[in-house]
Amino acid sequence: MAAMAVADLMVCMFNVILQNIFRYHFLDSWLSYTYVCRFTAFIQVFSSQLSVWFTVSFTFDRFISICCQKLKLKYCTERTATIVLMIVCALSFLMNIPVYLRYEPYSIIDDIQWGCRTVTGYYSSSAWVAYKWISTLSSLILPFPLLLLLNSLTARHILVASRSRRALKSRNNGDNSSDPEMKNRRTSIILLFAISGSFIVLWTPITIINICVGVTETPTFKGSNSLYLAIGITLLLMYLSSCTNTYIYALTQRRFREEMKNMVKYPFTVVKLFK
How far is CA 169 from CA 101, 166, 172, in A? Predict the structure, then answer.
């Protein structure tokens, strides 16, 4: 969850603040240097892909923890989580290296490269076309069936186990008193479905747009204001997905809420100590 929060923060910083706010208001800043422009394009795609696959990894971790008790002891450890995160980061880094190579200088003034524009062969080269489809498949299409499958299996296991536990407890105690284990399971399924469901709902529009643009082979907007508006809205929803996860953590996790309260209270505690 900490890695998911970092990835979401990277999306908010690089994709929203740096690209859509800072670059828009400061056109001739250092962000216009070609090397900086290339790097920011790379880091934006990289952070978005991390956010996607960290969500899938979290869902798979919950699936193992809830449904596979024997495998849980070996898989659900801090060491395994670190290895999985490192593998996801390494694969995402290697996968997005071509994004840096996609752009070339828009102009050269006094031997200084300014701006970024797509290389000439991006829309015609078979290698670039193959890369675009692989990127779309790995970042936008493949995560959906994985999330739906894992969530369905997890929900089915929780419902069956909860029904059996409730029936056994009622038979033994003859009442329906509160059960801490049932509360923990309920919290787990709420968190799981909130994060995965939010991801599916907010990422579906950008996935549909990417598939449609790829199938119709639309290289530019061609003056289509409606397509430009649709892409803008889908990007907004995609960025919103990274923002909503923080609120989901806060609403569903007691420990997360306590840490947030401690963080807010910390400056006042320091002031009291100095006094």
Answer: 62, 5, 5
For the chain, helix (H) and strand (E) counts, in that order, are: 11, 4
Q: Are strands 117-118 and 103-104 parallel, antiparallel or unpaired?
A: antiparallel
Residue 142: which of 72, 82, 60, 66 has the closest Cα? 60
- Looking at residue 11, its pLDDT comes to 87
Angstrom distances, CA of residue 158 to CA of 40, 188, 254: 42, 9, 21
Nearest residue to 38 via CA among 134, 135, 118, 129: 118
pLDDT greater than 90 at residue 229: no
Predicted local distance difference test score (pLDDT) of residue 208: 84
Between the alpha carbon of residue 14 and those of residues 17, 172, 232, the distances in Å are: 6, 56, 17
Largest Cα separation within the chain, whole Å, is 85
Distances (CA, A) of 145 to 113, 154, 188, 236: 43, 14, 20, 23
Is residue 29 pLDDT above 90, yes or no?
no
Amino acid at 39: F
The region of weakest confidence among 20-29, 203-212, 230-239 is 20-29
Predicted local confidence at residue 89, as pLDDT: 93
Length of the chain: 275
